[in-house]
Amino acid sequence: MNYLQSWNIRMTSFTILLLFMGVFSIANVVAHQGCQDTHKGEMCPEHGVPESECVLCNPAIKNSSYEELLKKHCEHNISIIECDGCRYEVGAVKVDKSILGEIVTVENVELFDIEVTHKATGEVGPNRDRFVIVSPRVSGVVKELFVDWGDPVKKGQKLAVLDSVELGEVRANYKKAMAMVRMAKKNYSREKTLYKQKISSTKHFLEAENAYEQAQIELKALKEKLILMGQQEGDIQDIAEDQVSSLFILSAPFDGTVVEKNVAIGELKDAFAPIVTISDLTNLWVWFDIYEKDIPIVKPGNKVMISVASYPNEQFEGLVTHIGVTVDEKTRTVKVRAEVDNRHEKLKPGMFAKVLLLHQSEKTNSLPVVPDEAVQTDGQEHFVFVPLHEGLFVRRDVTLGTRVDGHVKVMSGLNKNDRVVVKGGFLLKSGIMKEKFGEGCTH
User: Fold this and answer.
1) Is the pLDDT assigned to residue 64 strictly greater than 70?
2) pLDDT of 439 over the 80 cut
3) Of 134, 215, 344, 357, which cross-links 184 as Cys (Cβ 3.0–4.6 Å)?
């Protein structure tokens, strides 16, 4: 055998090996058996890759290669993906099922177009629709305090008890007015009966009727005054049964967290002076500025990715909910507000934030996007792991496109129906390398 024949045999074997590893597709090898100039310029117009390699337009390319992989037997006459010593040759790795879901996580591939249209700096702030400064409607001395900074509270929970002389006086007057109404009603009923019997005069009857109406008006006025002082209907009804008290309770209007406390026990607080501030920290606002020339790129509903110095390796997703209607004359910028879910409570009002405004749209020519962590490298090549069946994964070579803060476009190698390993890929890669340099097949 001469040198040229030996070289051709070696190159053919190497090409077959790369074919089963997914580096070359069958269609690609066939396409290049002849003159390469014949297919020069045959590019997929939608996805920017060679037509023969576009699995989005021709999913049969990928399916046929993997069907052949499942049928392939190794030199030990068993399925190559089941052979502990040979499966690494085709980029397959087997792991214990117990680590699935925790150490190794598999998710569906998402298809969408995504691009950064604006970068900005901003500040995390409270959601002002879920933010309240709790204050009394009447002056009083703080007798008890039930919450402190950072305490979670529930709707209706007691925050503080105050003692108000002014409120006590109105309550006493209300109780007196109730007694006056009862007396006036009793007198009116008696005069009405006597008048019908022509025993009492018209003058006495009208005087009793007027006194009863006046008593009712006075009682109603005092009730409205108590409501203005922050008393609830139940509190007012209790006045008739209980002894007159000057104490009143401040309660939380909704679920949230105490973010500020401006009170001490024994302190005299004026009407409408802040006692505590409550904010719902499970949903926050992030404010950032855009220049007036960039206003057309921002739309309500745009997705934003937010990062803060406290968690440099994490990003928090939000949506644009408000775009300012005026331009700052000095900075020539417009305020934009994004709303972000903060049930993890990692974001804090006042944090400095970096904001990436993203434009996302569902299109027929959209490309798969996967997390950066899902992509592994082997020299100059990039690949992901896809599950064959439970506990068994195989390497899938991919061509990458634009990276967008934690995510990357996949130009070829994946399609919408694929599932990929998004967490634990490096462990699978390490498993292949271990088998590759191990002791070989145990069969």
Assistant:
1) no
2) no
3) 215
